[in-house]
Amino acid sequence: MTVMRSYLDFEKPVAELEAKVEELRAVAARDGAVSISEEVGRLEAKAAAALTEIYANLTPWQKTQVARHPQRPHFVDYCADLIAEFTPLAGDRSFGEDAAIVAGFGRFGGRPVCVLGQEKGATTEARLRHNFGMARPEGYRKAVRLMELADRFGLPVLAFVDTAGAYPGIEAEERGQAEAIARSTEACLALGVPNVAIVIGEGGSGGAIAIATANRVLMLEHAIYGVISPEGAASILWRDQGRAHDAATAMKITAQDLLRLGIIDRIVPEAPGGAHRGRAEAIAAAGEAIAAALAEFEGLSPDEIRDRRAAKFLEIGRKL
């Protein structure tokens, strides 16, 4: 089945070229005597070159749009390809289940692991069910429950981050949203097993850090990670959401900026055009990066793992 490709505003030159390719193919299908292979090859090469050039020079705001692309692979896609025998667990044993965070146990490279992931959903129904990846307190308390289980049984913890932020609704505040985020962050820091977090789309505020306070923080090439959304920052600073592009630049939310600042540890490459154009390549690269990060902690004691994690976060900002 052919999936209708969704283009971002700055991808217009590529969209026009690829539309011409489709038109030529439609003509050829209608009139089999017409040979279009040479012209199609020329246009495809031109489109590929344009795509590579555009994605080599993305602005922070354009990267924000790529990170939010509706066809970008989500946690369930990474989990399906990287985690074997995945068994999800539900509920926080206090209030209820929150589908914004999917969590469970499985095998990564044959090794048993605990897996946490914020899931936005790919269809309207799924987005509503997963609350667009914005977790309520019970989601973070579920994450704490599973991290404590993983620590008890000596299993590494993998976290896939993709959220605009924790859910800001009244009912979430009534059930202790801030406390739940703090407890989840504390649980990350207390783990005696290695934990690796990877930002696969958006890493928004405390909603992200609650599961991303890890020994190693990885980030896809065109993902974003920040304390607030560019729109939110623009509303606060200039009372104008239209200046989101200015906020995105000022906030240093790109993987390249965050690596330079020592906030993240490694950038995972994406195909030209973003992870939504090269889903298999992005997921495979993420798996390789996670495996390399876990290998760094082989043979270390629980105290050494905790000390290295704490030292990593205490070091942030000291070299600026």
UniProtKB/TrEMBL annotation:
Keywords: ATP-binding, Cytoplasm, Fatty acid biosynthesis, Fatty acid metabolism, Lipid biosynthesis, Lipid metabolism, Nucleotide-binding, Transferase. It comes from the Bacteria. It holds the Pfam family ACCA. InterPro entries: Acetyl_CoA_COase_a_su, ClpP/crotonase-like_dom_sf, COA_CT_C. GO terms for molecular function: transferase activity. SUPFAM superfamilies: ClpP/crotonase. Residues 42-296 form the CoA carboxyltransferase C-terminal domain. PROSITE patterns: COA_CT_CTER. Its EC number is 2.1.3.15. It catalyses: N(6)-carboxybiotinyl-L-lysyl-[protein] + acetyl-CoA = N(6)-biotinyl-L-lysyl-[protein] + malonyl-CoA. It is found in: Cytoplasm. Pathway: Lipid metabolism; malonyl-CoA biosynthesis; malonyl-CoA from acetyl-CoA: step 1/1. It is an enzyme of class 2 (transferase). Component of the acetyl coenzyme A carboxylase (ACC) complex. First, biotin carboxylase catalyzes the carboxylation of biotin on its carrier protein (BCCP) and then the CO(2) group is transferred by the carboxyltransferase to acetyl-CoA to form malonyl-CoA. HAMAP family: AcetylCoA_CT_alpha (MF_00823). Belongs to the AccA family. Acetyl-CoA carboxylase is a heterohexamer composed of biotin carboxyl carrier protein (AccB), biotin carboxylase (AccC) and two subunits each of ACCase subunit alpha (AccA) and ACCase subunit beta (AccD). This is Acetyl-coenzyme A carboxylase carboxyl transferase subunit alpha.
